[in-house]
From TrEMBL:
InterPro entries: Restrct_endonuc_typeI_TRD, Restrct_endonuc_typeI_TRD_sf, Type-I_RS_S_subunit. Belongs to the type-I restriction system S methylase family. The keyword Ribonucleoprotein does not apply. Residues 2-65 form the Type I restriction modification DNA specificity domain. Pfam families: Methylase_S. PANTHER family: TYPE I RESTRICTION ENZYME HINDI SPECIFICITY SUBUNIT (PTHR30408:SF13), TYPE-1 RESTRICTION ENZYME ECOKI SPECIFICITY PROTEIN (PTHR30408). Keywords: DNA-binding, Restriction system. One of its GO terms (molecular function) is DNA binding. This is Type I restriction enzyme S subunit. One of its GO terms (biological process) is DNA restriction-modification system. Transmembrane segments: none annotated.
Length: 270
């Protein structure tokens, strides 16, 4: 039933004016055609296999990101970085390290056109990154909206506080997003990202959070330590990007299979 309902064109049931919406009675009265139960079970088995692969990749991504967050805390919270045992500490910080405000570390980037959520495509040439829970919200073919220089970049969700490290060409979702880039050589983007992840903004409840983020303190290490961490994190991000690419291909293949299986154009042997 779940897979069959995904084929419903809910947009055509829109009964809202300013805000798109669908009446419950319209949804409940929609007619759907389904195959016999044994065929449904075979179809569900095929599609569930794709979903299982996607979910497994998501878990692997989560474990990779967690490992890097732990490495960050080991180096920059507990100060057990390479060579810490022979490093001189001054006022609680390793010599050559300093505390800086986020706002003093930001590069001002040339703005690109934003892509509204109602302009997202299911498939397209470039992904749209917004502040939603999914890493990629949709796709666009608008080349004028694409950030492709100075990668990687960090996308911050002003409302959701979501942080996304983006190391591929992308378009920026229009709903409350900020683009972040470091202006400090000692703070590569990989390290900047995990420094921001470590900032706690949960006490500000529902608000525009970027103004609070900019006023936070983060640690800037020596260039050697910063680059060392960035190189390790880059290896992890490369693996994460590969897994996300796999998931995009798996989801696209699953979604192309779904209508063909449902209407009988493709059959599954018993």
């Amino acid at each position: 039933m779940y897979y069959r309902l995904k084929l419903l064109d809910i947009n055509s049931m829109n009964s809202g004016a300013a805000i798109p919406s669908t009446k419950r009675e319209d949804f409940y009265s929609a007619s759907i055609k389904v195959p016999d139960l044994p065929t449904q079970e075979r179809i569900a088995g095929v599609l569930a296999a794709y979903d299982d692969l996607i979910e497994n990749n998501r878990r692997r991504i989560g474990l990779l990101e967690q490992a890097t967050r732990l490495l960050y805390r080991e180096w920059f919270v507990h100060f057990r970085f390479p060579g810490f045992d022979t490093t001189k500490f001054v006022d609680g910080l390793p010599a050559g390290w300093e505390v800086r405000k986020v706002k003093d570390l930001l590069t001002r980037l040339k703005s690109k056109p934003k892509v509204r959520k109602d302009e997202y495509q299911a498939y397209g040439q470039w992904p749209c990154v917004d502040q939603g829970q999914d890493f990629i919200g949709g796709y666009t073919d608008n080349k004028e909206a694409i950030y492709h220089d100075s990668l990687p970049l960090i996308v911050f969700g002003d409302h959701t506080r979501a942080l996304k490290f983006v190391d591929f060409p992308f378009a920026r979702g229009a709903d409350g997003t900020q683009i972040i880039q470091s202006n400090e050589e000692r703070l590569p983007q990989q390290l900047f990202y995990f420094s921001l992840i470590n900032v706690d903004l949960s006490n500000y409840a529902y608000a525009r959070h970027f103004k609070f983020l900019k006023d936070q303190d983060i640690i800037v290490p020596t260039e050697e330590i910063g680059k060392n961490f960035a190189n390790r994190a880059k290896t992890i991000f490369d693996q994460v990007r590969t897994l996300r690419d796999q998931n995009q291909k798996l989801a696209k293949a699953r979604d192309l299979l779904l209508p063909r299986l449902m209407d009988g154009r493709l059959s599954i042997p018993e």
